[in-house]
User: Fold Alkaline/neutral invertase from Escallonia herrerae.
Amino acid sequence: MGTSEAVLQAFSGAVPRPFCSGPCFSKLDIASPSRSFVRFGKRRGLRCRQFHNSSKSLQNGIGIRQFAGKSASESLRVLRCKCQHAESVSGLTAEDGKGTWFVDNTQKLNPIHDTVNGPNVLEFEELKAEKVGLLSDHLPAVGTVNNAVHKTSVTSVEDEAWEMLRESMVYYCGSPIGTIAANDPTSSSVLNYDQVFIRDFIPSGIAFLLKGEYEIVRNFILYTLQLQSWEKTMDCHSPGQGLMPASFKVRTVPLDGDDSATEEVLDPDFGEAAIGRVAPVDSGLWWIILLRAYGKCSGDLTVQERIDVQTGIKMILKLCLADGFDMFPTLLVADGPCMIDRRMGLHGHPLEIQALFYSALLCSREMLTPEDGSADIIRALNNRLVALSFHIREYYWIDMKKLNEIYRYKTEEYSYDAVNKFNIYPDQIPPWLVEWMPNKGGYLIGNLQPAHMDFRFFSLGNLWSVVSSLVTVDQSHAILDLIEAKWADLVAEMPFKICYPALEGQEWQIITGSDPKNTPWSYHNGGSWPTLLWQLTIACIKMNRPEIATRAVEIAEKRISQDKWPEYYDTKRGRFIGKQSCLYQTWSIAGYLVAKLLLADPTAARMLITEEDSELVNAFSCMISANPRRKRGPKSSQQTYIIMYSDLASTVILEMSCFYWDIETSLGCVHGI
Ligand code: GLC
Assistant:
């Protein structure tokens, strides 16, 4: 690494910037609902200029980094910086009055907890410092490491997790805007783990929301929104405008033509630099889910009501709802579009994306303000919700009964009323599944394509289908039943398996391309990921079965801190820290914290849970109970049914054209609600 690179690294990442004394243009920029962004010369990214003495800042930057993750004194530096920051951001509002970024909502009633918001960042850190005996007059001199104080101050795994989470915070122009993926001081190869990943920040954001620290989440939402508009290309090709980056990095670079000044740049990666060049389909969907959670938890609805935020939601939806060649209501994507961001046979219609898609549609429906320009998108959204839910519940669901049906499927049925619509050959049922499927319980398969069912159990997709009500109440319970029945495989010695089982032998060679990182029972290929604890917890709370999550958290708690918060574990039972696993992985830390906080206050999980409308429940159940062999009429006789239903925000008209499956009669039963 060259000196200049070292300088950049020292400035960027998880270090607050106490010396950012110059004007921060990007703040004005971000408050503007017109979604403009500053571009300077040929360099890419959002920019924030700072004028300061470079050498002094460099010393300080390095000084802080040396102690990252280690010193109590460092926390105090963070605290001082936040103190300056609190002053510097106050009073910044949108110029034209349409956007209101820095609305002070700290005294608003919190609709989830029914209490006034908790202390702000600064107050909270002070309280915490007091609690752990770090009052300023007991402090060692700045820059020294007092290990004794540090060790005794960590009173529990949870306290340690909070400390780690705070140390992973990334600042842009003095404002906290995210958390880096991993903050491992011993690692020599960071790859892109020093970036803020959109998906990784979600549990961090939720943890901060649960603590009443809203600013970092609001900043994250608004800055990533600015990146959405960025012109992105790979070899002259541009993806859709609604795409959100997989990650971004704060870089500090010398200002063109001015040696005494630097500027901070937000540099996004939309997949054009990512390993394998995978497009992050999940980023925008998670962004929408976090936006709703922010509004619900903080009570500050001004962010979601902003014109630029509304436009951002619509851009994501437009991209997802665009017509294509596809026959299915599920979203068609390339391989590696989500948490599993390497070649793992996910291309097509992977469950995780469908669950997040459904969840984001429901969240958007709640947040979109009814106006002339939104009518079409709301109609498309409602149509898709019903179609998607029906498709997943009906065709992705598998349990003993369904497995037996597939086992006896006839194939090559050319007709509208085929039972085996996707022409699945019964020989596809893998031998492991015949043994593995419990008598009680079931799950959603990983993917469905013509003549192909991916029978692997993917945890995140199943858990989020419960959280978002993509599956029915019975199916939700059955998923939890299966988790309990298969505890030794899915939880074992570290929750939670990312998927089950692992691809082995020739299958591993063909499907992963002999990926040495994804060997059987490692990483994405059957590894165990502690971050999944938070999604498991919400699913269990929603189904009123929190004891399942409590058990899993207790297992994780036994070793996760001693193991230094690994990104993932290897082996069938999750016994080893992953071969190439990062340590101090932020979403392992945040996932654990969110699980703990929610188990302590289950009602707070409501900010992430979405329930379906009772009218739609009726429509779904009618569809599912309809006779699949009923004859399909000619196209001209297809009817459009109008289903009226209302939610808190508005009454909408749902136009239900009948799709490729036979649902005319079933819908008839809800006609005219
Ligand atoms: C790996 C994971 C991905 C995660 C990233 C940062 O690439 O597969 O899901 O976002 O690391 O932690």
Summary: The longest strand covers residues 258-269.
